[in-house]
Give the backbone structure.
Amino acid sequence: MSEVLVLVEHDGGDVKKVTHELLTLASQIGDPAAVVVGAGADKAVETLAGFGASKVYVASDTDLDAYVVTPKVAALQAAVEQAAPSAILIASTAEGKEVGGRLALRLGSGIVTDAVSVSSDLVSQQSVFGGSTVVTSKVTNGTPIITVRPNSSPANATGGSGTRVDITPVLSDADRGATITEKVAAERAGRPELTEAAIVVSGGRGVGSPEGFSVVEALADSLGAAVGASRAATDAGWYPHQFQVGQTGKTVSPQLYMANGISGAIQHRAGMQTSKTIVAVNKDAEAPIFDLVDFGVVGDLHEVLPQLTDEVNKRKG
């Protein structure tokens, strides 16, 4: 069985959920093998084996962290030359799509971006036009490179041998052209990462103002949830753009998604419609979001959410 390479997303060796998803997906296509680059690579090896990686190609030279994007491209290229894989899976993030595009050029291969599923014969499904249409695509030239949207596939801890294979990416002068001069850690409010959270509580235009998000945050904190926002809310400057859920924001697929004051436009639905259970609170009974939900409450979120938060806190006590 041919190997399917998965580029590992990690933070200092802490492997991100999307990598677990990609390894599970790779196991349905071929023999999953991970490629991990930079500082923390050694720490990641054991975790990767736990999610099915039969091999882990490791480029652990910390100097690779000094350059933008290209070390990951070079590491994947080195792994391809050694393994001759049947496909390469990459998280469909902004960086992931750039890595995929650069790698496709180097290998002379085709690329599919933003796939939401991949079959055993490497046919990819993509959700386009705001989630209203599904198309299928297949790479017909070279080694297929597919970027897959986070949260579009389940992650199963299947276990693998995790045999370590050290590789040495070769960086050209052009690869070293863009260097990282400073790193600043993002401030976190103690909430889960939006794309990895089991519960997401989002607010939209219905919150009314930046201050209106306080009731959304209070409910999220009572549930141990992440906070999300609609495009309308972020465009209005009511909440930071990194928390936007939707086609042009982040894709989430939690166990519970709560949409508060969100009308349910196609753009937003594209980023959350695969959530396991969807609850909406909106004072407009005709809002499109109610066509999608498992439970709906017609009412003012500023009245409903504080009551719900109090009830959750009572049950926790």
About this structure: The CA atoms of residues 113 and 147 lie 5 Å apart. Residues 3-166 form a domain with the Rossmann fold fold (CATH 3.40.50.620). The chain has a mean pLDDT of 92. The radius of gyration is 21 Å.
